Amino acid sequence: MAHEGRNVVELVAILDDNVKNIEGYRRMLEASREEIEYRFFQRPEDVVRFVGNNPVAVLVSELEMPHMSGKELFDVVGMASPSTVRIGMAEAGDIARTLEIFNQAWMYRLILKPFFLPEDLVGPIKEGLARYREVQEEEKRRQGTAKKLAEENRRMEAVLAQLARKKRRHVGIYNVALGIVRGNLSTETSGLGPESASTMEELCKELTEDFMRCYMYENYGFLHYKKAVQERFHHPGSGCILQVKNKTGHEIPEELMPKIAFGMFLGGTLCQKLFVSYHLAMLVEQEGRNYLLRIFCQYPEKGNVYRSKDVKARRLVVNMVKEIARDLSVHMALGTKNREFAMKLYFGKEEEYHERNHHGPL
After folding, report:
1. H/E element holding 279?
2. CA–CA gap between residue 351 and residue 174 (Å, rounded)
3. Of 41, 44, 77, 151, which residue has the fewest beta carbons closer than 10 angstroms?
4. How far is the CA of 308 from the CAs of 90, 196, 246, 311, 313, in angstroms?
5. How many angstroms separate the CA atoms of 13 and 330, rounded?
6. Residue 2 — pLDDT band, cuts 50, 70, 90?
7. Which of 204, 245, 206 is nearest to 222 (CA)?
8. CB 70 within 8 A of CB 105
């Protein structure tokens, strides 16, 4: 829409079926043509076609025309280009009729003819342009808000999809753990008395909950889990001591930490269920590219050592931890090329430690 030597920023269409009126408008608007581009029309259908194909800021139209009234024209233009500001022109002879049309038509302003000064026409056009700019800014803000809302919705959908995938994954893991628990309870615990069977059921429940807790909140690091196991198993007043150290020399990978954490809960729960008092040391070490959790448990040689007098129940506690660790390890390692983590438990009276079991990758 630019002409050589001009900086055209807005486009105004003017319609009047009278040729002499058009010539008068051209002369009155000549001084403002450096900043506004005008297009003049004598037929409404030409205006409709032009507005549909061009960004017309303001449409100024005669209201009384033989083939299409100004009101009808404004209605059509309103559908084709809602942001175009519409200004009506009418003779001042019949004010009542003119106001009736103004009230019925969808227009921004009405100006009365005849015009005696250029400003009588230029002034309303500039007001219409100012209104057009306001409408454009409002639309930009609306689109900006809509865009931000759409982006937030996309992010929310992505988060919800991720949570859904995570939930499906955790449900699968939980079902595996629950199946292992039920399997052990229905077979190995059949020879236990009511009290021992209840103890085993509580142990299985705790281990399953610990497992899910580790994997539901897998974004936590070593310090979080260290605090969690210490709150759970470190009670100096009753003779239960727990020390936890990261001896790798660096931060433990976040994706591996839930496995190590669950290993800590396994070892801690085993010792807590077996012994009245204990001294536990949990050390996270690194051997090449693999990580190793060593758990040392020192327990008293004499006195009231075991929580349960039932030897079979004590043996079952150990076997349960071993079986859960081994079976869950297999399921957690599915699809993993490297067996990246192992847990070892050591039990000893006083200062003697003897390796009791190697649970394999966890």
Report:
1. strand 278-287
2. 38
3. 151
4. 104, 8, 32, 7, 7
5. 77
6. very low
7. 245
8. yes
Burial class (CB in 10 A: 0-12, 13-18, 19+), 72: middle
Instruction: Take residue 150 and report the two structure tokens written for it.
Output: 């759409």
Tokens of 144: 């900006």
Provide the greatest CA pair distance for the chain: 121
Hey, CA dihedral for 58, 60, 65, 69, is it positive or negative? Answer: positive
What pTM, to 2 d.p., does this model score?
0.46
Instruction: With beta carbons less than 8 A apart as the criterion, state whether 294 and 344 touch.
Output: yes
- CA 78 vs CA 58, 83, 84, 125, 232: distances in Å: 12, 8, 7, 18, 71
Distances (CA, A) of 294 to 22, 241, 355: 96, 16, 10
- Asked if 61 contacts 90 with a C-beta cutoff of 8 angstroms, the reply is no
Residues 6+ apart with CB under 8 A from 24: 115
What gap in Å lies between CA 342 and CA 260, rounded to an integer?
8
Q: Terminal CA-to-CA distance of the chain, rounded, Å?
A: 71
Tokens of 264: 């800590």
Q: What is the CA radius of gyration of the chain?
A: 42
16-19 own/partner pairs: CB under 8 Å, 24+ apart: 16/40, 16/42, 16/61, 16/62, 16/89, 17/42, 17/43, 17/62, 17/65, 17/66, 18/62
Total residue count of the chain as it appears in this document: 362
Residue 279 contacts residue 350 (beta carbons within 8 Å): no
For 12, the token pair is 């105004």
Calculate the average pLDDT of the chain: 79
Phi, psi of 279 (to 5 degrees): -130, 110
Reported as a single tens digit per residue, the pLDDT across 130-186 is: 999 998 898 889 888 888 888 888 888 887 787 677 667 666 666 666 666 556 555
Alpha helices in the chain, H assignment, sequence order? 19-29, 44-53, 70-80, 95-104, 119-187, 194-216, 222-233, 257-274, 311-333
Q: ∠ at Cα 281 (238, 277), nearest 5°?
A: 25
